[in-house]
Hints:
Elements: H1 3-20, H2 24-41, E1 49-52, H3 53-57, E2 69-74, H4 81-92, E3 100-110, E4 119-128, E5 131-141, E6 148-153, E7 156-157, E8 160-161, E9 166-171, H5 174-188, H6 195-206, H7 213-226, H8 239-255, H9 266-280
Parallel strand pairs: 2-5
Antiparallel strand pairs: 1-2, 3-4, 4-5, 6-9, 7-8
Amino acid sequence: MTHSFEQSFKKRLQLIAKERNVTPAEVWQNVITERFLVRLCRSPYHSHFVLKGGTLLARYVDIGRETKDLDFTIQRLRNEISALQKIFNDIVRVEIEDGFVFMNPVIDPLEHFHMEYPGAHVKIEVRFGKAKFPLFIDLGFGDLVQVREKELLLLSNSKGPLFEPSLTVNCYPMEFVFAEKLETAIFRGADNSRMKDFHDLYTIASSEKMLNEPDTAKAIRLVFEHRKTPIRLPMQFDTSALEALQKYWDRYHKTATASARLPSQIVDVIEVVNRFIACHHS
């Protein structure tokens, strides 16, 4: 990578940040995420990775929050650290002339009391010139999902795309994203400190025509059955649970961006989600 390319690229990222009214750090995070996805899609393993989570949701709607991690469900690959290490070693070695270097992937087990199978957490070092960045990736195994292909539009500014204009990836349908976050919110109850789940549920519920009604009902049924969680809808929390959730929400709300337009009260978030469920689930 030449010095002139490095400086020109950094100026283009600054222009994107200005045009989109976001921080330079957010733009860097987005481009790093995209450059990994490009490498993944050019590797022999791309069909085994199903994109999910906030990175995917942000491609459908302005979620008003940073998405710092990548989340995937893994299909038809061994859930073993040694096997995953080889896979990520191969992915980061995919050669692309974009100035980015991905290196030193570290794989650790990722366990959660609600996971039927343990997952994995991946940390990758990313370099662009003298700049260094971490990329974090969570891998889940055993989830039920009906995979779709989606074309993702990649970063661009008024002068055009930075690199490729778009990329096609395997991903979760939005109906399954909603169903999984709903199940998590209900299963964890008052112990759920992950307020980004409520944030994303509210964002989806507030967006018109994002989800297909029959597909949403089907996804909720399949996800809850697969995770062995009783379907008790609408969401209901007793007074003590709401008080606990409100404390988490207060802290989260203070750090949320103005563009998220989130209610200050968790009960208002829950009410919007429940109204949405009433229209999309029977």
